[in-house]
Design goal:
Blueprint lengths: L6 E10 L5 E4 L6 E4 L7 H7 L7 E6 L13 E5 L14 E6 L2 E11 L2 E5 L9 E12 L2 H6 L13
Antiparallel strand pairs: 1-2, 1-3, 1-9, 4-9, 5-8, 6-7, 7-8
């Protein structure tokens, strides 16, 4: 069986940046199961895994365009401190959920200066080249329910009601 649309694929992966630092890895943890062709992974990695088989090992570099996108300066904003009501201490690195034109989005505080708070709505890996090492562990047909929901269910369901 090969990886193709609507297959559930289980992989071990390690993600590194250009400098070779490990940003994320499933090695030593539970492997990642995802539904191929349903945007569960960044597009560049999903394309690279298409047609692969159990046991295949893939090393690939995903460009920002095929990963988390380019950095969008429009997603960096300076806001008055008064917009953050009920929060005593605002610090760099704090994340907030914000309602945007594109729906709910996570924004990160990148600078606090006086009464001005600068937030960044870009994905933390936007604008970065992603270096993936992947091993394909398992491939199976998705269930009808997984196809309806667009993601993999662990034993016992996915924990949400439809």
């Amino acid at each position: 069986m090969t990886i193709s649309k609507d297959k559930v694929v289980t992989i071990h992966y390690t993600l590194k940046n250009v400098e070779g630092e490990v940003l994320d890895s499933s090695v030593g943890e539970e492997p990642l199961a995802y539904l191929q062709g349903h945007k569960n992974l960044v597009p560049g990695l999903e394309q690279e895994l298409e047609g692969k088989q159990v046991g295949d090992k893939v090393q690939t570099v995903v460009t920002p365009e095929q990963g988390y996108g380019e950095l969008d300066p429009g997603l960096i904003q300076e806001l008055p401190r008064t917009m953050f009501t009920g929060i005593d201490e605002i610090e760099v690195g704090m994340a907030f959920h914000a309602e945007t034109a594109n729906g709910m989005q996570v924004v990160e505080v990148i600078e606090v200066e006086g009464d001005t708070v600068t937030i960044d709505g870009n994905h933390p890996l936007a604008g970065q080249e992603l270096h993936f090492d992947v091993e394909v562990l398992e491939i199976r047909d998705a269930t009808d329910e997984e196809l309806q929901h667009g993601h993999v269910h662990s034993p016992g369901g996915c924990g949400h009601n439809h």
